[in-house]
Structures are given as C-alpha cells and as structure tokens.
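[09:14] KT: can someone run the structure on this one? pasting the chain below
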Amino acid sequence: MKKPSLDEFSDVIRKSGGNLTQAATLLQVSRQTLHNWMNDDEEFKNVVKDSRLRVFDRCLDVAYVVAVGVPHYDPKTGEMIGWREKPDAGMLRYLLSTLGRDEGFGEKLNVNMENPLPTVINIIQEDRK
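[09:31] RB: done, structure tokens below
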C-alpha cells in the first residue's frame, strides 16, 4: 500500500487508539512501515503522539475516579450514605506525588556518596516546603 494521506492516517490511528499493531493491520502494512512513515514525516509522528496523549488523558480520568472514589447518595435527601467505590489512598498519593510535584507534593531523596565507608550510602529525605 502507498503512504496514506495525513487525514487517512489520522483516522486509522484514532480508530486503533494509537496502537501501531492495529493501525498497521488496518492499513495492511507492517509496523516497520508505520515507523518509517513517522520517521520521514513529522506530521505523521505527531498524529501518533497526540493519539497516545489522548489515551493517557482517559487513563488519568480513571485514575482520578479510583483515587477519590465514587460516593453513594440517598436519592431522597441527597446526603452521602456510603461509597459505591471507596477512595484508594495509594492512587491518590501516586497522583499527587507525580502530577503535583511542581506544587510541592512528592518525595525527594538526596543520596550522599561522599562517605568514608564504600559499602554505605546515606539517604537523606528532605522536607519540601
């Protein structure tokens, strides 16, 4: 198959969710051919990158729901009466420590290699303020 137009390529990448194996199958070419097209054409590469970032955004949406949970409300009073899915503190901590790094969340480890004993590594956890 000859190289598709950018619009055709975008449509196939969208349908495959950025999965290059599926995209290659839909286009009836090898994965290597897709890689060649992406290496030769920055716009093709950007289509795949954008598609994968969209998948990542959907994953973040799911991670957010897992982190904060799904409350169960009384339909008559509107008051929260429990959880459909309990919040996951581990996921919340992970999201804050990765996505919230610029806001001061997360952990920073300082490894000091200047130690007279070569088998010992001092690890100092600094408070970020």
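[09:33] KT: thanks! The longest strand covers residues 80-85.
[09:34] RB: yep, looked fine to me
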